[in-house]
Amino acid sequence: IDNIFYKACQTAPCILFFDELDAIVKSRGDSGTTAECVINHLVREMKRIRGKKNVFLIGATNRPDIIDSSLLRPDRFSKLIYVPLPDEKSRVSILKSALRKSPVARDVDLQLLANVTKGFSGADLTEICQGACEIAIRESIEKDIVPEREPQCHRPTAWHADERDPVPEIRRDHFEEAMRFARRSCSDNDIRRYEIFAQTLHQSRGFGSQFRCPNQQLPSERTDGM
Length: 226
Description:
42% helix, elongated, ATP-binding, ATP hydrolysis activity, mainly alpha
């Protein structure tokens, strides 16, 4: 950890991104002395770069409930952002991004696919696209195997054969097959637990509290006879 932060300071401006933050900063009561050492080093380095304006630290986790409380204090991360599951418009964008390098048939309706995948995460949607792509590739390979099993006299000569292997197109039936094995990685109970945790954490940090300064009269508005 010391080496990572040292390199970040030396190459500033820099963004340090810790994915799956819960894997290294679990609650100290649930981990051993090694994890405590990691947490202490991380907290120390976070304090050290606090005054630097060109080094940014970002952490991501889907298990905020097991992160050590010392990392959730206001003087650690300046902002805590709860990212909900993607809505329908976002799901369409995720599907398009996952398929941007794949040939997709014109009859594939990504809007319909986004509509029926409510509650799916970005990883779930990507898994569906990868599954449809694998099905298309497997189908293409099976078609190529059949001519190879035919007698030699019926096989086309080398100059008749297509020298380029066609890229398999992902059709609607491929997505239908992939959807048979599709699953949500985040249940409704999980979503509710995340929402409650985010609300509780924001309240503990003072987010959403209402504060108003008392009304004060300007000197020109005073009527005390002065």
